[in-house]
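We store amino acids, tokens; thus:
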Amino acid sequence: MSLVLKVAWRNVGRNPRRSAVLIGAVAFGVFAFVGSTAFMDGIGDALIATAVDLQGGHVQVAARGYDENPTLDARFAGADRILAAADALGGARAAAQVVSPGMANSTEQAAGIMINGVDPDREPGVTVIADRLVEGSWFSGPDAGDEVVVGAELARKLRVRLGDKIVLMASDVNSEVSASAYRIRGIYRSGSTPFDRSQVYVPLRESQRLLGFGDAVSTVAVRLDAPARAEVIAGVLASAAGTTGLEALTWKERNPMLEMTKQAYDWSAMLMAVILFAAVGFTLVNSFLMVIFERIHELGIMLAQGVKPGIIRRMLFLEAVWIALIGTGVGILASAALLARWMSRGLDLSAFAEGLGAFGVPTVVYPVIDPAHMGLGFVIILVMILLAVAWPAVRASRFEPVEALNHA
């Protein structure tokens, strides 16, 4: 085996130009696959992060059925018990929230919005709004009843600035219109244009007063340091809620379309690898057919001397493996050189901010190396290359020694 391996290695160098072309083709396929997959994985992770950062954390506790029909009637009291259970878990941060549709009115414009009542102290540990402020500051405290934080897109639509007043209107639990005036304390930009246009934040106590909730809340959002534990934590919190009609849902359960999109991308990554390396495989087929016809006389001598056809097939397979390994190594090095900078600084896509923001994709995307996708891609590389060389290798092993020796 070692002798065949050495011969295969020497055969790679017999025609440096052809070998360089084949190695370049494999390297380009690997480079294209690793680069595109890393960026698509980065976009996928960014979409998931947006859902978690802006829409209830990794786990959300609410009244049963609230996720399908988020009405004011689906409020519940006793959120302190859920918060205490989450705090005791370790690696989890929780915050109670009140959510209601409403209207925001300025002196010039009006817009439909969602009013989010949040705990000023706990909310920064669950969502990223407090960290995404581009003007002003977060709430001064739990009792800041006349303060509001709005998105940059909503501020533009209402034609208001930091320090201006707006009026929030909503139907309370008694189906009566409730309204109050608030001064804009902060303006945020989350990276999602629809979100920035529709979400308004007020202190939790003020939202409870405005809507007549008393001590009740709409949800308790929980953010985890280890997202993989989401299902386990959801079970623990559901047990802590007892038989009070509450349920704990993970982000996957609340965003089934996002989970389906992620699964669909897993398949698309495999399809992309097959298409890329199928193209490389056709290049190898043509090249190895040329190789064996150039070496017919040499192969005839080997067969006449008693070399078994299986050894000839093995030699050509190992030659293809050498080319695949070198090409893969070159492709990985080229990908690493390109991605290293972008993985630390991110790829700036601000030129497409408007289009990306509509889908919740940030303007800076960080490539992500997913071992499962990369491993699958490299397996497909090897399989496609071995399949590509199979037919030329079989042809070479079936030559008749006398005909091969007499070949001009």
About this structure: The two ends are 31 Å apart (CA to CA). The chain is about 55% helix and 20% strand. The chain has a mean pLDDT of 83. The longest strand covers residues 92-105.
